[in-house]
Design brief:
3 helices; 39% strand; alpha+beta
Amino acid sequence: MFYRVTSEVFIKSTSEKVWKLISTPKYLEKVHPFCKKNTILDIKDKKIKKDLLVYNNGLNYIRIFKNWKNGIGYDLLVGKEKGKKSLVKWTINPHSEGAKLTISILPYTSDKIHRIFRPFVYYFIIRPGLKKYLFSVLNGIKWVAENDTNVQKNQFGMHPWFT
């Protein structure tokens, strides 16, 4: 089955400023309320290729950057280093009064869940959890872009998966 979770936020800032923010190495340490540490593992031609996201609860995820489009966005594969990865798309759309940032996640399908139960797990656990997560991440980026101050740990609420 095809499951996707998408959220967006309008930011009262230029798309160029939003791009600069989300394309800067280790930017998650400024904007991500569940990020304890963000370490660059590979960078080439000022484009991040691979980094490590350590969440507040100690969970480690590798992010592998794909389809880097300067000023527009990028695609990521995100997950445990030797595990399945989710596809995540970041896209910036400029507007006359700011920019719209959209994050879309196609979560990996766990083999631990029987396929009959997957729709229920997705709609009642995965989707609400990812929506809450995206709300916090997008609002963290909005906060930093509009206020020029870093977000605090759990600034937009705690999340049971990452705190």
